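Board notes (copied after class):
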Amino acid sequence: MRGATHAKWVACAVTVALAASACGDDGDSGGSGDGAGIVRSSWGDPQSPVEPANTNEVQGGKVLDMIFRGLVRYDPETGEAQNMIAEDFETTDSQKFTVTLKDGWTFSNGEKVTAESFVDAWNYGAHIDNNQKNAPFFSNIKGYEDVHPASGEAKAETMSGLVVKDDLSFTVELTDKFSLWPDTLGYQAFSPLPQAFFDDHDAWLSKPVGNGPYTIESYTKGSEMKLRAWDGYEGPDKAQNGGVDLKVYTDNNTAYTDLIAGNLDLVDDVPAQQLRNVESDLGDRYINQPALIIQTLVFPMYDEKWSADGMEKVRRGLSMAINRDVITKEIFQETRTPAVDWTSPALGEKGGYKDICGDACKFDPDEAKKLIEEGGGLPGGKVTISSNVDTGSHRVWMDAVCNSINNALGGGTCTVNPIGTFADFRNQIGAEKFTGPFRAGWQADYPLIQNFLQPLYYTGASSNDGKFSSKEFDDLVDKANQETDPGTAIESFQQAEEILAEQMPAIPLWYQNGSAGYSENLSDVSLNQFSVPVYDQIKVN
């Protein structure tokens, strides 16, 4: 998915524009010793209003993860797919599945969670008229092409592969065999929706109603979102606190300063500038652990200047002009690891992690120059790197990457294009505004190698922002998805990855650890494998 997120009077003076979120008494953690206080956490405004099939970035995903529960949920420690609302998945051929639900689940408005709640939600998410970003996640369900054709109008209102049997069961027919399909259903696009969503969509978007451990109390764009524990939640992961106030910051250094000042309880992205001091500042309240996150630079393959024949040499050459070892050591203080493929070491070798990029991900200025010259040179003789700079210390590494490229290829070759906010950055990506490589931080939707490859590089995929297209790559992904043996499937996915190494539609930069820091007000703070705080388990002291 789609990214990454003192005296009191001093902090207030610094953050006067954020006074409502950083300095007011409203939202005080107010712990009473029973863990039921409010957690004050840093956050960034999502690109769009949060809804399951239309949110594919990290900030909105954090909210969905608190207010929804789906068929499957990933264990916060291991990433293992575990049934949540699903009682069972039955199949004899890995293509036709019968899904049985547990009884007793409800939405926070009192509506029951039924088979229809899932089928209606998935049909809505898939239909072309609804313009949902995550529609391609439903593309392997039979009938998808009728509700979401490659061109023209829909031929049907619903997918033929989805059939409600009764309140607690429905059947799913896929277009091809996909043995791991149930394991993908922990992604938030597959969440159920109440009838209220369809009765008054605008009202629902203004205050989403879900079936998770939290409800949304209020949201002020640019300031904060208040979520409160739902007393009626009967799931196994009931909130251990009274709620979470997600406070908007456009600079994570400011968030860190507020944490140290006692005006904030949790930051889930420690800025690079603070890494040298974070252990002395926070001690054992600093978390640094591997996560299912990779940072890349995506080429705008929609621009023929970058996608023309021979330009793969230029793209590979730029990759070899980046000194990942120095950047990760000097800037990120061991919270990043130089990338050697397009997945994550958190998958492990059994999960498909392997050095596939090879020499193309190693710093070699001479070879970089040679390849770029052989490929016809950089378009216009220069390259501009774009990224949002409101979170994640992005401006610091952008400058470092450009300095590396300039040192390797000659001064003035590389410049940076900092974008003020994540929302604006994503909007410009969607409008295909960039004429040079742009940052893509991918946080896996589920812990499978497939999720690092298909959503990002498959033709027409939901997060294929650079519009890369390769029939050979697509065919290998299709082949992998149809394998019933996981080991054989992984081999096919790795063969598809080799196409990425040849074509370099995106430069792998580094794997990102999950990092967080928290105040003395909190306990039981942890990050899941996706580097997102396990908010429902946090206690306020």
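Comment from the instructor: Residues 1-27 have pLDDT under 50 and may be disordered. The first strand starts at residue 38 and ends at 43.
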